[in-house]
Protein backbone atom coordinates (compact mmCIF):
# COMPACT_ATOMS: atom_id res chain seq x y z
CA UNK A 1 0.00 0.00 0.00
CA UNK A 2 2.91 2.38 -0.43
CA UNK A 3 5.25 4.59 -2.51
CA UNK A 4 8.00 7.49 -1.66
CA UNK A 5 10.65 11.20 -1.93
CA UNK A 6 19.12 13.20 -11.05
CA UNK A 7 20.02 12.40 -15.24
CA UNK A 8 19.30 10.04 -17.94
CA UNK A 9 20.45 6.43 -17.69
CA UNK A 10 20.13 4.00 -20.57
CA UNK A 11 18.35 0.81 -19.57
CA UNK A 12 19.16 -2.70 -20.82
CA UNK A 13 15.49 -3.59 -20.28
CA UNK A 14 13.31 -0.72 -21.53
CA UNK A 15 9.66 -0.81 -20.52
CA UNK A 16 7.40 -0.39 -23.53
CA UNK A 17 4.89 1.64 -21.53
CA UNK A 18 7.32 4.56 -21.42
CA UNK A 19 8.94 5.95 -24.61
CA UNK A 20 12.37 7.43 -25.15
CA UNK A 21 13.35 10.46 -23.03
CA UNK A 22 12.78 12.87 -25.90
CA UNK A 23 9.12 11.87 -26.23
CA UNK A 24 6.38 12.86 -23.79
CA UNK A 25 4.34 9.74 -23.14
CA UNK A 26 0.57 9.61 -23.24
CA UNK A 27 -1.29 8.64 -20.10
CA UNK A 28 -2.22 4.99 -19.79
CA UNK A 29 -5.63 3.88 -18.58
CA UNK A 30 -5.52 1.46 -15.63
CA UNK A 31 -8.66 -0.49 -14.78
CA UNK A 32 -8.29 -0.61 -10.98
CA UNK A 33 -8.45 2.61 -8.91
CA UNK A 34 -5.31 3.15 -6.88
CA UNK A 35 -4.86 5.18 -3.69
CA UNK A 36 -1.30 6.44 -3.41
CA UNK A 37 0.51 7.71 -0.34
CA UNK A 38 3.47 10.06 -0.64
CA UNK A 39 5.82 10.32 2.32
CA UNK A 40 7.95 13.44 2.08
CA UNK A 41 6.37 16.62 0.72
CA UNK A 42 9.53 18.58 -0.02
CA UNK A 43 10.23 20.02 -3.45
CA UNK A 44 10.39 16.63 -5.18
CA UNK A 45 7.73 14.88 -3.15
CA UNK A 46 5.23 17.71 -3.34
CA UNK A 47 5.67 18.04 -7.10
CA UNK A 48 5.24 14.29 -7.52
CA UNK A 49 2.11 14.23 -5.35
CA UNK A 50 0.52 17.10 -7.29
CA UNK A 51 1.39 15.51 -10.65
CA UNK A 52 -0.22 12.25 -9.57
CA UNK A 53 -3.38 14.06 -8.46
CA UNK A 54 -3.60 15.79 -11.82
CA UNK A 55 -3.22 12.40 -13.52
CA UNK A 56 -6.38 11.26 -11.74
CA UNK A 57 -4.96 9.24 -8.86
CA UNK A 58 -6.23 9.52 -5.31
CA UNK A 59 -3.23 10.82 -3.33
CA UNK A 60 -2.68 11.17 0.42
CA UNK A 61 0.39 13.02 1.69
CA UNK A 62 2.48 12.69 4.84
CA UNK A 63 5.31 14.87 6.15
CA UNK A 64 6.77 15.77 9.55
CA UNK A 65 6.43 19.44 8.60
CA UNK A 66 3.02 21.00 9.26
CA UNK A 67 3.85 23.69 6.68
CA UNK A 68 4.52 21.05 4.02
CA UNK A 69 1.26 19.30 4.81
CA UNK A 70 -0.62 22.59 4.66
CA UNK A 71 0.86 23.37 1.24
CA UNK A 72 -0.46 20.10 -0.15
CA UNK A 73 -3.86 20.52 1.48
CA UNK A 74 -4.13 24.07 0.13
CA UNK A 75 -3.50 22.64 -3.36
CA UNK A 76 -6.45 20.28 -2.91
CA UNK A 77 -4.68 17.26 -1.42
CA UNK A 78 -5.35 15.27 1.72
CA UNK A 79 -2.81 14.55 4.47
CA UNK A 80 -2.43 12.26 7.46
CA UNK A 81 -0.17 12.63 10.47
CA UNK A 82 1.93 9.46 10.24
CA UNK A 83 3.17 6.80 7.81
CA UNK A 84 1.30 4.23 9.89
CA UNK A 85 -1.99 5.99 9.17
CA UNK A 86 -1.02 6.27 5.52
CA UNK A 87 -0.50 2.52 5.38
CA UNK A 88 -4.09 1.95 6.50
CA UNK A 89 -5.48 3.76 3.44
CA UNK A 90 -3.07 3.29 0.52
CA UNK A 91 -2.35 0.59 -2.05
CA UNK A 92 1.01 2.09 -2.96
CA UNK A 93 3.28 4.29 -0.85
CA UNK A 94 5.97 6.41 -2.49
CA UNK A 95 8.84 7.43 -0.20
CA UNK A 96 10.54 10.69 -1.24
CA UNK A 97 12.78 11.55 1.70
CA UNK A 98 16.41 12.60 2.05
CA UNK A 99 18.42 9.63 3.29
CA UNK A 100 18.43 6.10 4.66
CA UNK A 101 17.87 7.26 8.25
CA UNK A 102 14.63 8.91 7.20
CA UNK A 103 13.61 5.87 5.13
CA UNK A 104 14.21 3.71 8.20
CA UNK A 105 12.10 5.99 10.40
CA UNK A 106 9.11 6.27 8.07
CA UNK A 107 9.03 2.55 7.32
CA UNK A 108 10.09 0.89 10.59
CA UNK A 109 9.70 3.55 13.28
CA UNK A 110 7.09 3.43 16.04
CA UNK A 111 4.55 5.18 13.78
CA UNK A 112 6.10 3.82 10.59
CA UNK A 113 4.39 2.21 7.66
CA UNK A 114 5.03 -1.37 8.75
CA UNK A 115 3.24 -0.65 12.04
CA UNK A 116 -0.08 -0.27 10.18
CA UNK A 117 -2.41 -3.17 11.03
CA UNK A 118 -3.17 -5.43 8.09
CA UNK A 119 -0.96 -3.41 5.73
CA UNK A 120 -0.31 -4.87 2.32
CA UNK A 121 0.82 -3.46 -0.99
CA UNK A 122 3.85 -1.78 -2.49
CA UNK A 123 6.52 0.63 -1.37
CA UNK A 124 8.23 2.69 -4.08
CA UNK A 125 11.45 3.89 -2.46
CA UNK A 126 12.89 6.95 -4.26
CA UNK A 127 15.56 8.30 -1.89
CA UNK A 128 19.23 7.96 -2.85
CA UNK A 129 20.62 5.31 -0.50
CA UNK A 130 23.51 2.86 -0.47
CA UNK A 131 22.86 -0.14 -2.73
CA UNK A 132 23.58 -2.47 0.18
CA UNK A 133 20.84 -0.76 2.19
CA UNK A 134 18.39 -1.00 -0.70
CA UNK A 135 19.07 -4.74 -0.97
CA UNK A 136 18.45 -5.32 2.73
CA UNK A 137 15.32 -3.18 2.57
CA UNK A 138 13.81 -5.49 -0.02
CA UNK A 139 14.21 -8.52 2.25
CA UNK A 140 12.87 -6.72 5.32
CA UNK A 141 9.77 -5.41 3.56
CA UNK A 142 9.14 -8.83 2.05
CA UNK A 143 9.17 -10.28 5.57
CA UNK A 144 6.64 -7.59 6.53
CA UNK A 145 4.35 -8.59 3.66
CA UNK A 146 5.15 -5.66 1.38
CA UNK A 147 6.60 -5.45 -2.12
CA UNK A 148 9.46 -3.04 -2.80
CA UNK A 149 10.36 -1.18 -5.96
CA UNK A 150 13.86 0.26 -5.60
CA UNK A 151 13.27 3.42 -7.63
CA UNK A 152 15.59 6.41 -7.23
CA UNK A 153 14.49 9.44 -9.23
CA UNK A 154 16.19 12.13 -11.30
CA UNK A 155 15.02 15.33 -12.91
CA UNK A 156 14.60 17.93 -10.18
CA UNK A 157 11.63 19.80 -8.76
CA UNK A 158 10.39 21.16 -12.11
CA UNK A 159 10.12 17.76 -13.76
CA UNK A 160 8.61 16.21 -10.65
CA UNK A 161 5.83 18.79 -10.85
CA UNK A 162 5.30 17.96 -14.52
CA UNK A 163 5.22 14.20 -13.91
CA UNK A 164 8.28 13.84 -16.13
CA UNK A 165 10.89 12.29 -13.86
CA UNK A 166 13.43 9.67 -14.85
CA UNK A 167 13.11 6.60 -12.62
CA UNK A 168 15.90 4.04 -12.19
CA UNK A 169 13.94 1.03 -11.01
CA UNK A 170 14.48 -2.57 -10.01
CA UNK A 171 12.14 -5.08 -8.41
CA UNK A 172 9.95 -8.06 -9.07
CA UNK A 173 7.55 -8.31 -11.98
CA UNK A 174 4.63 -7.99 -9.56
CA UNK A 175 6.16 -4.85 -8.03
CA UNK A 176 6.40 -3.28 -11.49
CA UNK A 177 2.83 -4.32 -12.27
CA UNK A 178 1.49 -2.80 -9.06
CA UNK A 179 3.56 0.34 -9.62
CA UNK A 180 2.45 0.87 -13.23
CA UNK A 181 -0.26 3.54 -12.71
CA UNK A 182 1.94 5.44 -10.27
CA UNK A 183 5.02 5.36 -12.50
CA UNK A 184 2.91 6.45 -15.44
CA UNK A 185 1.74 9.50 -13.49
CA UNK A 186 5.13 10.56 -12.10
CA UNK A 187 7.66 9.60 -14.78
CA UNK A 188 8.50 10.33 -18.37
CA UNK A 189 11.07 7.54 -18.49
CA UNK A 190 11.31 4.38 -16.42
CA UNK A 191 14.54 2.37 -16.70
CA UNK A 192 13.80 -1.25 -15.76
CA UNK A 193 17.14 -2.41 -14.43
CA UNK A 194 16.57 -5.76 -12.79
CA UNK A 195 14.25 -8.03 -10.84
CA UNK A 196 15.60 -7.38 -7.33
CA UNK A 197 16.07 -4.34 -5.11
CA UNK A 198 19.52 -2.76 -5.24
CA UNK A 199 20.21 -2.37 -8.94
CA UNK A 200 18.21 0.85 -9.19
CA UNK A 201 20.24 2.32 -6.33
CA UNK A 202 23.50 1.15 -7.92
CA UNK A 203 22.71 3.00 -11.14
CA UNK A 204 21.63 6.11 -9.21
CA UNK A 205 24.92 6.05 -7.32
CA UNK A 206 26.88 6.08 -10.59
CA UNK A 207 24.73 9.00 -11.73
CA UNK A 208 25.45 10.90 -8.52
CA UNK A 209 29.18 10.24 -8.82
CA UNK A 210 29.14 11.83 -12.27
CA UNK A 211 26.85 14.68 -11.25
CA UNK A 212 28.97 15.59 -8.22
CA UNK A 213 32.26 15.43 -10.11
CA UNK A 214 30.85 17.50 -12.97
CA UNK A 215 29.53 20.22 -10.62
CA UNK A 216 32.82 20.39 -8.71
CA UNK A 217 34.77 20.51 -11.99
CA UNK A 218 32.49 23.24 -13.37
CA UNK A 219 33.04 25.32 -10.22
CA UNK A 220 36.81 24.87 -10.36
CA UNK A 221 36.93 25.75 -14.05
CA UNK A 222 34.89 28.91 -13.56
CA UNK A 223 36.95 29.89 -10.51
CA UNK A 224 40.20 29.48 -12.45
CA UNK A 225 38.83 31.46 -15.37
CA UNK A 226 37.70 34.31 -13.12
CA UNK A 227 41.08 34.32 -11.35
CA UNK A 228 42.79 34.61 -14.76
CA UNK A 229 40.70 37.68 -15.53
CA UNK A 230 38.30 36.10 -18.05
CA UNK A 231 34.85 37.62 -18.17
CA UNK A 232 32.65 34.88 -16.64
CA UNK A 233 29.74 35.45 -19.04
CA UNK A 234 32.09 35.19 -22.02
CA UNK A 235 33.70 32.07 -20.56
CA UNK A 236 30.30 30.43 -20.12
CA UNK A 237 29.40 31.25 -23.72
CA UNK A 238 32.59 29.68 -25.04
CA UNK A 239 32.55 26.52 -22.93
CA UNK A 240 28.89 25.73 -23.65
CA UNK A 241 29.80 25.67 -27.34
CA UNK A 242 33.00 23.68 -26.89
CA UNK A 243 34.08 20.13 -26.08
CA UNK A 244 34.59 20.93 -22.40
CA UNK A 245 30.88 21.47 -21.84
CA UNK A 246 28.73 19.20 -19.68
CA UNK A 247 25.07 19.18 -18.75
CA UNK A 248 25.97 20.22 -15.22
CA UNK A 249 28.24 23.05 -16.42
CA UNK A 250 25.48 24.39 -18.63
CA UNK A 251 22.83 24.02 -15.92
CA UNK A 252 24.70 25.14 -12.77
CA UNK A 253 27.02 27.91 -13.96
CA UNK A 254 24.09 30.31 -14.57
CA UNK A 255 23.45 30.17 -10.81
CA UNK A 256 27.02 31.41 -10.32
CA UNK A 257 26.69 34.10 -12.97
CA UNK A 258 23.48 35.38 -11.36
CA UNK A 259 24.84 35.12 -7.82
CA UNK A 260 21.71 33.17 -6.95
CA UNK A 261 22.30 30.20 -4.67
CA UNK A 262 18.68 29.51 -3.83
CA UNK A 263 18.81 25.73 -3.37
CA UNK A 264 17.40 23.57 -6.13
CA UNK A 265 19.75 20.80 -5.05
CA UNK A 266 21.81 21.64 -1.98
CA UNK A 267 25.53 21.27 -1.28
CA UNK A 268 24.70 18.86 1.56
CA UNK A 269 22.93 16.50 -0.85
CA UNK A 270 26.27 15.88 -2.57
CA UNK A 271 28.08 15.56 0.74
CA UNK A 272 25.65 12.72 1.46
CA UNK A 273 25.66 11.12 -2.00
CA UNK A 274 29.40 11.26 -2.57
CA UNK A 275 29.89 9.77 0.89
CA UNK A 276 27.66 6.92 -0.30
CA UNK A 277 29.95 6.51 -3.32
CA UNK A 278 32.95 6.44 -0.97
CA UNK A 279 31.22 3.93 1.34
CA UNK A 280 30.32 1.66 -1.56
CA UNK A 281 33.87 1.86 -2.90
CA UNK A 282 35.17 0.73 0.50
CA UNK A 283 32.71 -2.17 0.57
CA UNK A 284 33.98 -3.27 -2.86
CA UNK A 285 37.65 -2.42 -2.21
CA UNK A 286 37.38 -0.16 -5.24
CA UNK A 287 39.14 3.24 -5.57
CA UNK A 288 37.08 6.34 -6.42
CA UNK A 289 39.67 9.15 -6.42
CA UNK A 290 37.71 11.65 -8.53
CA UNK A 291 34.62 11.23 -6.40
CA UNK A 292 36.77 11.60 -3.28
CA UNK A 293 38.20 14.88 -4.54
CA UNK A 294 34.73 16.22 -5.33
CA UNK A 295 33.53 15.09 -1.90
CA UNK A 296 36.28 17.12 -0.23
CA UNK A 297 35.17 20.26 -2.10
CA UNK A 298 31.51 19.82 -1.15
CA UNK A 299 32.52 19.03 2.44
CA UNK A 300 34.61 22.20 2.55
CA UNK A 301 31.67 24.25 1.25
CA UNK A 302 29.36 22.71 3.84
CA UNK A 303 31.89 23.29 6.61
CA UNK A 304 32.13 26.95 5.57
CA UNK A 305 28.40 27.32 6.13
CA UNK A 306 27.04 26.80 2.61
CA UNK A 307 25.53 23.34 3.08
CA UNK A 308 21.93 24.47 2.55
CA UNK A 309 22.74 26.62 -0.46
CA UNK A 310 22.49 25.44 -4.06
CA UNK A 311 25.18 22.91 -4.97
CA UNK A 312 26.77 25.49 -7.29
CA UNK A 313 27.89 27.23 -4.07
CA UNK A 314 30.79 24.76 -4.02
CA UNK A 315 32.58 27.54 -5.97
CA UNK A 316 32.56 29.63 -2.78
CA UNK A 317 35.38 27.45 -1.47
CA UNK A 318 37.61 29.25 -4.00
CA UNK A 319 36.15 32.61 -3.01
CA UNK A 320 37.31 31.99 0.55
CA UNK A 321 40.67 30.41 -0.25
CA UNK A 322 41.77 32.77 -3.01
CA UNK A 323 39.80 35.95 -2.32
CA UNK A 324 37.93 35.40 -5.57
CA UNK A 325 35.38 38.02 -6.65
CA UNK A 326 32.32 36.07 -7.75
CA UNK A 327 29.55 37.55 -9.87
CA UNK A 328 26.41 39.06 -8.42
CA UNK A 329 25.11 38.79 -4.90
CA UNK A 330 27.79 36.29 -3.83
CA UNK A 331 30.36 39.11 -3.62
CA UNK A 332 28.50 40.56 -0.66
CA UNK A 333 27.93 37.27 1.14
CA UNK A 334 30.19 35.91 3.80
CA UNK A 335 29.70 32.48 5.28
CA UNK A 336 26.43 32.21 7.18
CA UNK A 337 26.80 32.63 10.93
Automatic annotation (TrEMBL):
Source taxon at top rank: Bacteria
InterPro entries: 6-PGluconate_DH-like_C_sf, 6PGD_dom2, 6PGDH_NADP-bd, HIBADH-like_NADP-bd, HIBADH-related, LtnD, NAD(P)-bd_dom_sf
Residues of the 3-hydroxyisobutyrate dehydrogenase-like NAD-binding domain: 198-318
Enzyme Commission designation: 1.1.1.411
Function recorded in the entry: Catalyzes oxidation of L-threonate to 2-oxo-tetronate. Can use either NAD(+) or NADP(+) as cosubstrate, with a preference for NAD(+).
NCBIfam families xrefs: ThreonDh (NF043037)
Protein name, entry field: L-threonate dehydrogenase
Amino acid sequence: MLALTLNRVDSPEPVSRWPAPSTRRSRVSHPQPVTVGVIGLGAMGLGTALAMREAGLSVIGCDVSAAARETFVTAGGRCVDSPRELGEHCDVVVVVVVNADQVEAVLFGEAGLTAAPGRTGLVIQCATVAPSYAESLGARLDAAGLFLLDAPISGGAAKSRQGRLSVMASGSAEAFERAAPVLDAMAETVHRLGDAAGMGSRVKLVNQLLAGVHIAAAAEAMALGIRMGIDPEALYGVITRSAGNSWMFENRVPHILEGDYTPLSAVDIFVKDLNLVHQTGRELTFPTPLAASALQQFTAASGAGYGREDDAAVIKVYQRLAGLALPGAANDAEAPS
